[in-house]
Amino acid sequence: MAIIPDAVPEESLDHGEIIRRGGANCGDEDFALCKCPHCGRVYLVEYEVDTLYLDPANLDRRVGINIGVSGYRCEACGGMFPERTAWIGQKAPESMQVTWQDLAASPWRWVAARTREGGATDL
Fold first, then answer.
1. Among 6, 28, 61, 65, which is disulfide-ready with 55 (CB 3.0 to 4.6 Å)?
2. Per-residue pLDDT, 28
3. Is residue 28 left, alpha or beta, with left meaning phi > 0 and alpha meaning psi from -120 to 50?
4. pLDDT exceeds cutoff 80 at 15
5. Tell me: the pLDDT tens digits for 44-96?
6. What is the C-alpha separation between 121 and 117, in angstroms, rounded?
7. Is 65 inside a domain boundary?
């Protein structure tokens, strides 16, 4: 598998804004995005400590996960995230990679300046 061409790169995420909104975890946070492979709901992942943020309006709503080992049941559709499969990065299935269009249409759009500030129109 490979990163799809229009996937949102990790370096585009605004770490300062995520922390400002309550996303601090244990220090040295590494953020990425993934989505449910069944319904496309977008989630924020902090993969230094394996945390899945559930609510873009309340970053205190989060769960500990074991990325690439355990699964997770999507809050929106109840579909299972795959076990023993990467959810982020180039090893993630294309169905779990978040595109700029996905992000612009989701409540998580604030995590990147491009979608937060209206730059989504040229996607």
1. 61
2. 83
3. left
4. yes
5. 999 999 999 999 999 999 999 998 788 899 999 999 999 999 999 999 999 99
6. 10
7. yes
Q: How far apart are CA 52 and CA 44, in angstroms?
A: 6
Phi, psi of 46 (to 5 degrees): -115, 110
Asked whether residue 38 is domain-assigned, the answer is yes
* Residue 120 maps to a domain: no
* DSSP for residue 97: P
Q: How many structural domains is the chain composed of?
A: 1
List the domain range (segments joined by +) for residue 95. Answer: 10-114
Average pLDDT, the chain: 92
Q: Is residue 5 in a domain?
A: no
Which SS3 state, helix, strand or coil, does residue 98 take?
coil
Token pair recorded at residue 12: 């585009």
pTM here is: 0.92
